[in-house]
Specification:
6-stranded mixed beta sheet; 192 residues; 5 helices
Length: 192
């Protein structure tokens, strides 16, 4: 009951801040969604996705190494996926250049994760030779807390998609240091 009331209040506050009208149709959160629908949604977003825009859209938003909004969207996604239900969430984090990096993640009811990634707004232009748009499927989602790239280094919480059910933090650290994450079909979803 409290969650329902809180959700209603949040929606009313968001709508009031937007003049009573959502900016576009809400994206599916608890239904199956195709890669084409995910890609189309990301392409419809404005050229510049500000932190305020990301938060108002309900994205799990990470800025300056911390969660800036959408924690409830992420928690709901995790809960639904742990229960084997279809669910989706958009993750938005910002590059050092200040550009939005968008990952639309969908848990499939039959298992596994579908990822559509859009790096066209990341602020690096053509400087980095990385694929700007990506579509992949993964078997597992792993969250590693107190993750350190090197002994004694700063601790982070990271989320990694992979096809290795037994992937642990030490193995991923090795992949990262060897720059073989792509070869091992692992994807660093976010860092906090």
């Amino acid at each position: 009951m409290k969650k329902g009331l809180l959700a209603t209040i949040c929606v009313m506050v968001l709508l009031a801040g937007c003049g009573g009208q959502p900016t576009k149709e809400p994206k599916p959160q608890a239904t199956a969604i195709t890669a084409e629908e995910m890609q189309a949604y990301l392409q419809e977003l404005p050229e510049e996705v500000t932190k305020e825009t990301a938060v108002s859209e309900g994205f799990y938003t990470i800025a300056d190494g911390a969660v800036a909004g959408g924690q409830e969207a992420w928690d709901g996604f995790l809960q639904a996926s742990e229960q084997g239900e279809a669910a989706s969430v958009v993750i938005c984090q910002y590059s050092m250049q200040g550009g939005a990096m968008l990952d639309y993640l969908s848990h499939q009811a039959e298992g596994g994760y579908l990822l559509v990634s859009d790096r066209t707004r990341d602020g690096y232009g053509e400087e980095l030779e990385i694929e700007k748009q990506l579509q992949e499927t993964f078997d597992c989602l792993n969250i590693f807390e107190d993750f350190r790239l090197e002994e004694g280094g700063q601790a982070y919480t990271i989320c990694v998609l992979s096809n290795e059910p037994e992937l642990d933090a030490e193995t991923f650290r090795t992949y990262w240091q060897e720059r073989t994450t792509e070869a091992h079909q692992t994807y660093l979803l976010f860092v906090i």
